[in-house]
Every structure is written in structure tokens, then in C-alpha cells.
Backbone:
């Protein structure tokens, strides 16, 4: 039975990629690969390695319930898994199980395999969100919308540039995740990192294990130097931050009083008490999932402080924490992809808001007009004082400055809103997105 909140917090492909079944597959993949490379190094018979590989490929025939039941006995699930595997292949072939390894070698390597698979799922959802943002940026390249800073109206921009900002963030998050995935390392050092149990072939086994699993090789084990986990946490957490930023923009723009965008999805967004409501469920769910990431990232960074050759508790805290981080950020990315796909911008509402709020733009134009005679600082102060007078008197800024003789008031605001080089920047972001898309196709 699925959990009550799984529909929100275990959404998308990443949730399946970090399930208990996925964990077992990753652990078994490591044990199978280790048996194969140990046979290649001449440490165990090939027939024994084949038996281990065959057993690992069929988890349904293994007594994994015992592994679950006994996982806490040794502080991690690898010792009972090794016993189950040895029982499955028999005494003769058991020599090829867990060759020269310690539990952390298998768990750490399985963890990076799990993370690699989960990030592939996250990347798929980030790609879908980015593609949706790209369509919005291209379609609304020149449509004006009010820019807002510190939650107050600032100056006009374009919805195309806002969407292009979303797109640049999503593409940047994808690139950072790809860099981290490309550097994910194998773990193999034996009990104390010396490879003493590998009969002089430990370095060669580690290199072969890395190649077999498609991971980076290392010159030494990283048992207590947790940079790979920190890199994962940082990149995944940063992706959550990007997703949250886009989601909160949508939530704010979808407010009834603003009404510049709306999520339009069949059967979604209603209220139990108010039949008129259309809540931006995908955006707020993306935000909810992303909100959980910083605490999980902090736990992983705190766990970097580890003792000697094996941490007493800090290492153990990483497994569920990274698992949950991947799950919640994957869910956030999945929700955001849906949000942007069904997002409906109200261009007329955006334009009306810009047209009704000319005072900020007029204040900027006044400061520019006064600068040649007063200097930039005094011109800024003069325009700010005119704005304060408009606020005190309750009059439009245009009325307040109408009688000024030192500027051409009539010529301050002509034509449409000044959005500067917004369109050129949209084009540049779209070009970069197309290049990234071609490079990953």
C-alpha cells in the first residue's frame, strides 16, 4: 500500500530509483561486479564468479527478508546480504562472494550507483521543465510584465525574460548534476583501506571494478573523506533551490489579485470548501518537496566529519538521508515539469498591470532626465522626493511633476514600456538551451 503522502512526495522516476528494491539491486550489482573482476584478477575461479553473478541477477530467489530482518544486527545490511549470497551459491562458490571487501565498500559503491540512477530520473524531469520554460520564453519573448523586487513593483520586464531566467537556472542545475555524476567514484579498500585482503591485487581490482560499473577510479579509498557525498548533496540541493524559485514565482503570479498565470489541469486545483478555487497545486507541491531539501543537505554536510578509518554513526546517517534527498528533489522536479507544461499566462492581465503602474518607470525616466544638470546622486534623490510627494498627496506622479520646468515632462514617457535588452537576452538563453539539448540528445 502506498503512503498517504506519496502522491506528493514520492512522485516521478526518482522515487522508484531509490526504493528498497532499487537499493537491493544496487548492492547486488556491486557484489556481482566484484565477483567478476576478482575472477579476472585470478583471485577466484570463473565458475564461482559466474554463480555469484547468476544469483545476484535473480533477487527473487534470494532470502532478502532475512537481510531486512538482520540488517540492524551489524549496523548495516551488507553482512546479512553476504551470508544470504553465500548460502545461495553454496560452499564451493562462496569464495567469490565479497572478495577482499568491507561492508562500506559495497554500501558506498551501491549508494553512488543508486544516486546515478536517481539523478538520471531527476534530469529527465528537469529537462521536461526546461523545455516547457523554453516554450514559454519563446512564445512570450516580448510580452511585458511588471518586474518585482523585494516583493514590490519595480520596472517592466518581459514574461519571456522571466521564463528565460527559469530556463537558465534549470539548465544550470542539469549541468552541475551531470558533472557530479561523471565523477562518482567506486569504493574499494578493504577493512582498513589497505587492501590487505586482496592478495596484492587490490588496486587492480578497484580499477576493474570501477570500469565494470562505469564509475571513476580512485587512488585510495574515500571511506571517511566524504567529498563525493557532499558533491552529490550540493548539486541535488542546488537543483531543489532552482525548482523552488520557479515554483514560488508561479505561486505568486497565480494569486487572485495578480492573476498573471494559472495552472490549467483537468481535475486538479480544487478546494474542499470553496468551489470557485483553482489552486496552483503543481507549483505549490514542487515548492513543498523542494523545501525539504536544505535540511537533508545540511545533515549530509554535517556527516562529513568522520573518525579515523570508519565513522561511528555519521556514515550510517548518510544512507536514508541521501535516499530521501533524491526522492524529494525528484518529486519537486516532476511537479515543476507538470506545472510549466500546463501553465497558462494571461498576457492581457500582465500588460494591464504594467500600464496601470507607470509611476516606477516615470520615476526612473525623471532621474535620467535630471542627471545631466544635477548629477546622478542628486537626480536620484530628486526623483525619490517626487515619488514620496505623490504618495503623501495621493496623486499620480505625473501630476506631481507636471509643472516642472527643468525637464520635458511630456517627453519622459513615450511609446511602450522600456524593457531594455530583454529580448536579446531571451534569445541568448534559448540558444544556450538548444546547444545543451543537442549535446545531450
Residues:
Amino acid at each position: 500500500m502506498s503512503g498517504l503522502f506519496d502522491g506528493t512526495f514520492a512522485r516521478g522516476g526518482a522515487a522508484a530509483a531509490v526504493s528498497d528494491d532499487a537499493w537491493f539491486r544496487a548492492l547486488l550489482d556491486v557484489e556481482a561486479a566484484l565477483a567478476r573482476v576478482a575472477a579476472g584478477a585470478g583471485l577466484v575461479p570463473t565458475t564461482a564468479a559466474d554463480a555469484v553473478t547468476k544469483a545476484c541477477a535473480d533477487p527473487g530467489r534470494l532470502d532478502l527478508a532475512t537481510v531486512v530482518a538482520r540488517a540492524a544486527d551489524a549496523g548495516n545490511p551488507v553482512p546479512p546480504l553476504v551470508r544470504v549470497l553465500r548460502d545461495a551459491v553454496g560452499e564451493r562458490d562462496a569464495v567469490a562472494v565479497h572478495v577482499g571487501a568491507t561492508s562500506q565498500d559495497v554500501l558506498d559503491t551501491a549508494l553512488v550507483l543508486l544516486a546515478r540512477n536517481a539523478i538520471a530520473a531527476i534530469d529527465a524531469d528537469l529537462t521536461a521543465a526546461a523545455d516547457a520554460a523554453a516554450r514559454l520564453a519563446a512564445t512570450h519573448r516580448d510580452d511585458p510584465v511588471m518586474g518585482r523586487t523585494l516583493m514590490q513593483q519595480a520596472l517592466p520586464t518581459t514574461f519571456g525574460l522571466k521564463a528565460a531566467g527559469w530556463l537558465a537556472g534549470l539548465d544550470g542545475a542539469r549541468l552541475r548534476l551531470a558533472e557530479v555524476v561523471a565523477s562518482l567514484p567506486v569504493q574499494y579498500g578493504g577493512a582498513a583501506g589497505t587492501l590487505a585482503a586482496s592478495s596484492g591485487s587490490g588496486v587492480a581490482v578497484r580499477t576493474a571494478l570501477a570500469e565494470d560499473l562505469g564509475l571513476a577510479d580512485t587512488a585510495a579509498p574515500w571511506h571517511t573523506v566524504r567529498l563525493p557525498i557532499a558533491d552529490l548533496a550540493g548539486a541535488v540541493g542546488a537543483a531543489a533551490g532552482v525548482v523552488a524559485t520557479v515554483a514560488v514565482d508561479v505561486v505568486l503570479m497565480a494569486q487572485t489579485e495578480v492573476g498573471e498565470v494559472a495552472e490549467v489541469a483537468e481535475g486538479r486545483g480544487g478546494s474542499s470548501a470553496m468551489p470557485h478555487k483553482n489552486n496552483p497545486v503543481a507549483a505549490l507541491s514542487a515548492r513543498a518537496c523542494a523545501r525539504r531539501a536544505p535540511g537533508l543537505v545540511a545533515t549530509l554536510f554535517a556527516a562529513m566529519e568522520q573518525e579515523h578509518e570508519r565513522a561511528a554513526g555519521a556514515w550510517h546517517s548518510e544512507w536514508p538521508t541521501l535516499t530521501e534527498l533524491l526522492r524529494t528533489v525528484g518529486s519537486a522536479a516532476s511537479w515543476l515539469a507538470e506545472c510549466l507544461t500546463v501553465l497558462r499566462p494571461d498576457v492581457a492581465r500582465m500588460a494591464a498591470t504594467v500600464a496601470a503602474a507607470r509611476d516606477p518607470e516615470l520615476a526612473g525616466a525623471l532621474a535620467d532626465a535630471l542627471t545631466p544638470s544635477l548629477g546622478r546622486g542628486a537626480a536620484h534623490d530628486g526623483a525619490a522626493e517626487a515619488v514620496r510627494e505623490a504618495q503623501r498627496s495621493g496623486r499620480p506622479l505625473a501630476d506631481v511633476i507636471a509643472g516642472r520646468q527643468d525637464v520635458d515632462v511630456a517627453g519622459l514617457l513615450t511609446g511602450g514600456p522600456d524593457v531594455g535588452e530583454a529580448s536579446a537576452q531571451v534569445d541568448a538563453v534559448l540558444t544556450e538551451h538548444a546547444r545543451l539539448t543537442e549535446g545531450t540528445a
